[in-house]
Design goal:
alpha+beta; 5 helices; 7-stranded mixed beta sheet; Aminopeptidase; YpeA/RimI_acetyltransf
């Protein structure tokens, strides 16, 4: 299996939209109402929103390829792009998703390692993310990689408010 990770540019907008919506649906559609899913997908992954996020100098997107097929992606935030005020010494993993067809191949771990590498390059001291309290597989995955629950925040999915655990990993 040949794997590589590539930073996204504005030319990747359509692919980013496709993989974002697909992986979010695959991950959460069975636990949420169709109305909430539809509202969130339209708001978070429309082309204008993704173009704005891709153009933000404090955010970076990466696509991971397995045998030249886009298998997942990563979105990182620093400074004011972070979804919580975690400070300038932090890097946020806002989104990390792998297509269902590519799960259990170690690709998620490679994306976390990529985030750690970038955090170190940027001289950040910690990595953090929010993970839905009901996403037990993801919570176990992050714990295995050294993340610890350090708080929580509300995530809006359509009109629903859900609790996300904030998980943090020191990288110094």
């Amino acid at each position: 299996m040949a794997v590589h990770i590539r930073k996204c540019s504005i030319e990747d907008l359509a692919l980013l939209q496709e993989i974002s919506a697909e992986t979010f649906k695959e991950t959460f559609q069975n636990q949420n109402s169709p109305e909430s899913m539809s509202a969130y997908l339209e708001k978070a992954f429309n082309l204008d929103q993704l173009r704005k996020e891709l153009s933000n100098p404090c955010s970076q997107f990466y696509i991971i390829y397995s045998n030249d097929e886009a298998a997942g992606y990563l979105k990182l935030n620093i400074d004011e792009a972070q979804t919580e005020g975690m400070g300038n010494d932090s890097l946020e993993i806002e989104r990390i998703y792998i297509r269902k067809s590519h799960l259990k191949q170690g690709l998620g771990k490679l994306l976390v390692y990529k985030a750690i590498e970038i955090a170190k390059q940027l001289k950040k001291e910690k990595l953090w993310l929010g993970v839905w309290e009901q996403n037990e597989n993801a919570i176990a995955f992050y714990k295995k990689l050294g993340f610890m629950q350090t708080g929580s925040h509300i995530f809006k999915l359509g009109d629903e408010e859900q609790l996300d655990f904030i998980m943090t990993k020191s990288i110094i």
